[in-house]
Amino acid sequence: MECKPHGGDLALIRPHYYTVPVSCWRRPAVIRLAVLTDLHNNLYGSLIKALELEAPDLILIAGDMVNRPTGLTPPRFTRGYGCAAKLAARWPVYYAPGNHESTWEAAGKYAADYRQFRRALEKKGVVFLNNDSASLGDEDNPLTISGLALGKEQFTHHRGQRKAPSADEIREILGPPRPFQILLAHHPAYLQAYAEWGADLVLSGHYHGGQGRLPFAGGVIGPGFELFPPYTKGLYREGGTQMIVSAGMGTHTIPLRVFNPREIPIIDLVGK
């Protein structure tokens, strides 16, 4: 992993660079991915410029571009919508839900608003992967992107009550993995299940980098207020599966980021 912060107004957004070899590709090729997570309806005027400097081939959104409705507030999504629409005007965009999209979709009072949000972005060219897959590439250089919509029971803030998905459950939802298999799964805690299912590369967020970060200790706190949770930021491995977790772009509820810059993972898939 390598970080090269931009200068000037772009310094708020730091790209982190990764190279992922793809052994199943038969032709030499490089596909550059830019991964966005956890915008949470915040607005960053320099985001498009930062992405233009990186020249990605695909934009992959791993959830929480919006803020879910609560008992006191309606969903907040206008900035998230505007951002995704601008992205789709420049690049192919694949969007998998996080817990905020899934909660919004399940909220009876506001479910129609979510359907309208999704239809409007689909008209702009955004491809939603809500327990669905998209096959790109060809027979020589295959690439499949799948989006897993985890349920509320996988996101509960009480760790002891959280229900981990199994590889069999993921297989029932998405079918068997395909080469080269990318999985957009917002919650990184279930790396073992993602690996057992057969993902080659998992892209996640959710932890916001641990809100704050300490040298050698990593992320400090998770959404369930657990201290020093695993998988808060960076590259992790489980068998033949790699998982890249983004510290994300925004904040919600607790507007706190300490030694924890907003980031965009930039991933080069490199065929032999």
Can you tell me the CATH architecture?
A: 4-Layer Sandwich
Q: Using DSSP, what is the number of strands?
A: 15
N→C terminal distance:
20 Å
Tell me the count of domains.
1
Describe the structure.
- The protein is an alpha/beta fold and about 270 residues long.
- The chain has a single domain (about 1-270), classed as Metallo-dependent phosphatases (Purple Acid Phosphatase, chain A, domain 2), CATH 3.60.21.10.
- Helices cover about 20% and strands about 25% of the residues.
- The strands form three sheets. It has a seven-stranded mixed sheet with strand order 1-2-15-3-4-5-6. Strands 7-8-9-10-14-13 form a six-stranded mixed sheet.
- Strand 7 and strand 8 form a beta hairpin.
- The chain is globular, with a radius of gyration of 17 Å.
- Residues about 5-10 have low confidence and may be disordered.
Strand and helix map with partners:
Elements: E1 2-3, E2 13-22, E3 30-36, H1 47-54, E4 58-61, H2 78-88, E5 93-95, H3 99-106, H4 111-124, E6 127-128, E7 132-137, E8 142-148, H5 152-155, H6 167-174, E9 181-185, H7 191-197, E10 201-204, E11 213-214, E12 218-219, E13 234-238, E14 241-245, E15 262-271
Parallel strand pairs: 2-15, 3-4, 4-5, 5-6, 8-9, 9-10, 10-14
Antiparallel strand pairs: 1-2, 3-15, 7-8, 11-12, 13-14
Helix pairs in contact: 3-4, 6-7
Write a concise synopsis of the structure shown.
This protein has 272 residues and is α/β, with parallel strands linked by helices.
Note the main attributes of this structure:
Purple Acid Phosphatase, chain A, domain 2; 272 residues; 27% strand; alpha/beta
